[in-house]
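Local shape tokens

___
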Amino acid sequence: MSTEPVPPESTENAGAATPDAVGEPGTADATATAEPTSDVTAARGAQSEAEAGADAAADAEPADQGDAAKDASEGDGEATGDGGAAAQLSEAEAELAAQKLERERIERRKAEKAEPIASGAKLSGKAADLLAAVRAVEGGAKPPATVFDEPAPAPRRPAPEPVRRPQPVTDGPSAHAAPPAADAVEEVRRVLAAGGAPEPLAPQAAVALGEGAGEVLREDPWQLLRVPGVRPEQADGFARALLGPECSPDDERRGRAVTVWLLEQAALAGHTALELPALTAALGRQAVPDADAAVQSTLAEGEALAFQDALDGPGAGQPAGDPGEDGEEGDEDAEARPVRVLVGLERYALAEESLADALARVVNSLSKESATRWEQVTAAASAGPAELLRAVAGHGLVLHTGGEAARAEPAALLTAARSLGLRAVAACHTPDGRERFEALLGEGAGDGAVVTVAGLIAGAEGPGRDADGAFALDLLVLLDAPQLDVESAAMLAEALPDGARLVFSGDPAVLGSAGPGRVFADLLAARVCPQVASRTPDPGPIGELASGVGIGELNQVDAPGKEIVIVPVRDAGEAVHRTVQLVADSVPRAFGISPEETVAITPGHGGAAGTRALNAALKERLNPGPGRFGGFDPGDRIAYAPAPGRTVQGRVVTADAEGLHLSCAGASVVVPRERVEQAVRHGWALTAHQAVGSRWPAAVVVLPGDAAQALSRPWVYTAFGRAERHLSVVHGVEQALPRAVAEIPAKPRTTRLPVLLRAQVPAGG
């Protein structure tokens, strides 16, 4: 079979996913940028001043100074009050008397120092016990055995039965947050009209800006940038209409709003923070006259946070800014150690720090005795799963890598854990992934052994929680780990009880998470825990082709059963025509795979052969209708996004005054009519990001010529790997396909997780 390149199509989301804010990572100048932007530096400075003040106070010996002052005043009184007597003394006698007084004061001070310190006499309870223990140690005695013992933790309460959501379910943001009041929306609409902005933005603006949104926009028109989809040039026009001559590019409000907007765009591209040079350069491209002042103003208002992370280099053995044994040498090492200054939005920065703290707790809280329970199942395991079982037996945090066939190893792990009576659960990215993993477990796994990540976080699936909010779990296996964004990973890790084990399992070659962060890749890079690489390859010609793509090679693969077919096309119109022909006719006739079991995958939503064009053509062929429910008809195949970055496949059932009724993974979902346009698309054709985590018996990968720039090795690997039995490649990109596989890796993301983990967990875990 020939694997000539296939043309990709341009994606309408490419601009949003790769904002101007994201530039090449730079190295921040520690002396030029760290002090004005870093809270860490300020905190260290304050700590140094506090320590210096404490040392000075200790050296002053306040008690002795008080005695000296008292004695001095008494001496002065004697000199002035008894002037006649003093006059009768000779100079030698006066000198002897003064020396005698000085010797008495010295002896008195020595005696006072030798006595026990009287401080703390009024203390009681734990404080008094600690003071007594300290004095005992100073005197060479043994402190009471119970003084420094930690109190025994309260026993965890049995986990209550999880509360299951009733069916049907009304999902999506509207189900969890009350819509803005009508008068608030009307007020925003009047402000938008006054500024020449589209009035349909009013509901979104009211939600994004919260209470008093209209007044917020009047006072700061650039806050319009907080509404999704609004760009700086549009906000500038709105501000000019409202402010008139007072509107200027150097307005401090504009600088802050554009800074926050750039950080939000960076988050859409997967970054949890931006390096300061990249952020200031992006501000310059947005015509912000003083980028440094804009960043400083944003930090001062608390709309973003700044961080200073030490990098590997001279002096890497100790944290930047910490003195060594010799104060001067420590300062020199701190100055020589390279650092980078990062700026990020609070929600993602705190999520990354919370995740690092939670993972460190997982690593450090595992009981040594718990490993003995695993010895029996570890010894009986076959060669493949045995390595993973041994790693999990002895460590709280373990990483497992491999393709689709390698999922049999975490399945064996879960079965073994449950056979020991442990509370073990596996979480997948999609309902389809859950069903496929349940098939690997068989009937012996029991109900509730496999859940979706979203369902576990929401409490709709999986175990209940105890009184402290922790999962009733001894082992959590997170499958499809590359799709975990930093916020979801933090919520899961924080909810694990002390002593529980956590396993991340996934294929590092697939596309990363739709949300900010690169959790799985960061954990692999940090090397703070065992990493088990599966040796089980994906079978068949499709598995062989995908394995080659994963290492950067587009190989010619033998496919005697026509498992892989290349369909050359000249333009996007022909690509759409051939895709419909393959899905509706050729694949069902040749392989017995129905159109309902086939997916078309294309690089983007827009373009002449994007998901919109393909879905329109496939609907006309497979389920024609007038689209009387907002463009949808009963029986339409849909892709529903209940939250950004999460897609669920389903079908349209009906529609009424409540909204569009869907059936998604066996659950009934009602999407309010005002949310339909944003959250529901037709689903015969998907992007690779929408398809990741799921597989179909057949996949048609559409690569039109106008999408060549959107291709990368992870994209091709993900798209080709969605097929189980048959893969057709509608090819129109010529040499762009092999070039993407060989030369274009995943786009880098700026994150802090590896640095945060290395500071808390020793290398190697």
In short: Residues 91-114 form the longest helix (24 residues). The first strand starts at residue 274 and ends at 275. Residues 2-88, 117-124, 142-176, 313-330 have pLDDT under 50 and may be disordered.
